[in-house]
Design a protein that fits this description.
Layout (H helix, E strand, L loop, with lengths): L2 H8 L5 H39 L17 H14 L4 E3 L4 E3 H4 L19 E7 L3 E5 L5 H10 L4 E10 L10 E11 L4 H16 L5 E8 L2 E10 L15 E10 L1 H6 L8 E8 H8 L4
Parallel strand pairs: 1-5
Antiparallel strand pairs: 2-4, 3-4, 5-6, 6-10, 7-8, 8-9, 9-10
This protein binds phenylalanine.
The site of phenylalanine has 12 residues, from strand 9 and strand 10.
Length: about 290
């Protein structure tokens, strides 16, 4: 019943030539209006779909960006360094490519000494120092002990050397590159109780207040006496289990610095004494978090 339809109904009553004109006019008008409606609704549809896709609920919690983290070894090194820095140890870094003298000879392990076999060493080809011998990839952080003694020349020395070490060994529990940390304290009247106190302090700080340390007699060429340090088993808490040895887990080596090593470092062994210890970063980290 629209207005256009009313006009169309009137067409038959219009005179001949005008009837044709009227028909054309009405058709054009109808089409113009239809096009205008179509056009308008497509604009409206488009706008509402844009609004749909842009709409968001501002009360929803935001998307959290993915978060990275430091390498676990980096964390462990930071933690170990902080523990020892608190009691006055000074963090140092020494070369990874080291002369034989610092890694062995100066540590009371002369050439061909069987004790060297324990440090399955990588040698650098065709590199020889007239005084310090062959170049090696340092097999332990103890090489830093002689470097620190020669650098400071005079006690007190409280060194913490954390570095990469290299040995020719690969199996389930050994990697050719790993990290160690060596502690060295040299001063007047340093004795085993200072070593034991420091070990206890570290063990409690790093593994927890209920953990204890113990020392067992051992042998190293560069310490006398030498010890192996154990910590209360992380898994059973000391009762004894499949993983530990009677409630204890092995941590690493320690001892009183050998007088020959003090002398090699330029320190008077009749005036000063010292202790040293050296453990694996991966090892203490894996123990702490019970990583198999
Ligand atoms: N350097 C020894 C090792 O790699 C550990 C150690 C350090 C022992 C210091 C005694 C004193 O096994």
């Amino acid at each position: 019943n629209g207005e256009i339809t009313q006009f169309i109904k009137q067409i038959p009553s219009v005179k001949d030539e005008k009837r044709k004109q009227m028909g054309v006019l009405l058709n054009d008008t109808k089409k113009t209006i239809e096009d205008a409606i179509k056009n308008q609704s497509s604009i409206i549809n488009h706008q509402s779909s844009v609004i749909d896709s842009e709409w968001f609920d501002i009360t929803l919690p935001g998307l959290k960006p993915p978060q990275g983290h430091l390498h676990l070894i980096t964390y462990a090194i930071k933690e170990i360094a902080a523990i020892f820095e608190k009691i006055g140890f000074n963090r140092v870094a020494y070369p990874e490519v080291e002369w034989d003298w610092y890694a062995f000879e100066g540590l009371n392990m002369p050439e061909n000494h069987p004790a060297r076999d324990e440090w399955e060493t990588f040698f650098i080809q065709d590199l020889l120092h007239p005084k310090y011998g062959a170049a090696v990839l340092t097999p332990h952080t103890s090489s830093g002990q002689l470097r620190e003694m020669s650098r400071l020349k005079k006690p007190p020395i409280r060194m913490l050397n954390i570095a990469k070490c290299y040995r020719r060994q690969i199996d389930a529990s050994h990697a050719p590159m790993f990290y160690q940390f060596d502690g060295l304290v040299i001063q007047e009247d340093i004795n085993i109780t200072h070593l034991k106190g420091t070990l206890d302090y570290f063990v409690k700080q790093y593994f927890g207040p209920k953990k204890e340390s113990r020392i067992r007699p051992f042998h190293f060429q560069f310490t006398e006496p030498s010890f192996e340090v154990d910590v209360t088993c992380i898994v059973c808490g000391g009762k004894g289990c499949k993983i530990c040895k009677g409630g204890w887990m092995e941590l690493g080596g320690a001892g009183m610095v050998h007088p020959i090593v003090l002398k090699n470092g330029g320190i008077d062994p009749t005036k000063y004494t010292g202790f040293a210890f050296g453990w694996g970063v991966e090892r203490v980290l894996m123990m702490k978090y019970k990583i198999d």
